[in-house]
Amino acid sequence: MDFSAYETVLELRRYTLRPGRRDELISLFEREFVAPQEAVGAHLFGLFRTPSSPDEFVWLRGFSSLAARVDALTAFYTGPVWRRFREEANATMVDSDNVLLLRPVVRGLASPPPGSGVYLSFGEAPAAFAVFETEPGPNNFPQLPVRTDGPFMVSFSRSPSPGSESLEATSRSLLR
User: What range(s) does the NIPSNAP domain occupy (predicted)?
Assistant: First the structure.
């Protein structure tokens, strides 16, 4: 499957969690939420711990279009898996509204260069393998808020740059 199509619309989601509950959410997320979201048309590129923030979970969800985004999110969030596990997931979170809705400037999440380490930068990073900017279209799934205080530019690279954040891939993360 060509996952590059799922870079058309990207959500960068940064959750602040209750102290000490990150691994609990990651376990639930990987066990219950990855496959059902992908089955309805989302693609989860990356699931990450942020070593510098022990109570943060960062993840990337891509879609082939804004229309595909609303279809996938509607199917997932009205479906049986979310209904069954939402209270358990939400109990781990302090804030799940730090979300950027982005579009590609430079594609590359689907086929990052060889190497290890993933670094997130706000702005264009040297040697970035993927660069995204704020999606100018409206949030077509308002049940999940996205930030409107942009515009933003977000880069992913294999090496650190000034101000970048190291992301530590979880076991189910495709981006490593």
Answer: 11-104
Which region, left, alpha or beta, applies to residue 127 given φ > 0 means left and ψ of -120 to 50 means alpha? left
Looking at CATH, the fold of the domain delimited by 3-169 is given as Alpha-Beta Plaits (3.30.70)
Paired residues of 9 in beta bridges: 63
Q: Which of 57, 46, 62, 60 is nearest to 12 (CA)?
A: 60
The tokens for 160 are 């650190």
Per-residue pLDDT for the chain (176 aa), expressed as one digit of tens each?
Answer: 678 999 999 999 999 999 999 999 999 999 999 999 999 999 999 999 999 999 999 999 999 999 999 999 999 999 999 999 999 999 999 999 999 999 999 999 999 999 999 999 999 898 999 999 999 999 999 999 999 999 999 999 999 999 999 999 999 999 99
Closest CA to 13 of 51, 48, 65: 48
CA distances from residue 140 to 7, 12, 15, 57, 103 in whole angstroms, order as listed? 17, 16, 21, 24, 14
User: Where do the structural domains in the chain lie, given as residue ranges?
Assistant: 3-169
Q: What is the pTM of this model?
A: 0.96
Ordered DSSP codes for 68-124 = HHHHHHHHHHTSHHHHHHHHHHHTTEEEEEEEEEEEEEE--TTSPPSSS-EEEEESP
Question: Which residue reads 């691994």 in tokens?
Answer: 23
